[in-house]
């Protein structure tokens, strides 16, 4: 016996997959850091999306590679522009929860045409970032289906 479940269980397995089972560590920057430092951070931590927080660590925005590239095209001093000027800001940030079905978060990534969602906890004063869900995590989940099932 291969240890794989028969093919008919695959939809059940898929429905049981939660964001928290596949999420990655979030990389966050403060909203007053410069675009220059955000670019450095992106290379250092090898991520494509940075989450932006205020001084109380509540989510205020998102920075993608192209947000930073766009700003770099202008003739501006990147070390003097704070990221809150160029980020996609709340309430326009799309997020998810760790106990949510993965398939639901995957729909959100595709519908909004974005690469990553912050995984958050809701608090009275705002959202705390506890994880990062990317298209890579969805691809990994997709592969895990083929490992646990006879296809
Ligand atoms: P890139 O811009 O590098 O292709 P994305 O496709 O993820 O990366 O981002 C496209 C745009 O959507 C960017 O302006 C970015 O700020 C914004 N964005 C990225 N992630 C989110 C999110 N979770 N919620 C809202 N906007 C987002």
Automatic annotation (TrEMBL):
Coiled coil: none annotated. It comes from Planomicrobium soli. This is CBS domain-containing protein. The chain holds residues 49 to 199 of 199 of the full protein. It comes from the Bacteria. Keywords: CBS domain, Repeat. Residues 22-78, 87-151 form the CBS domain.
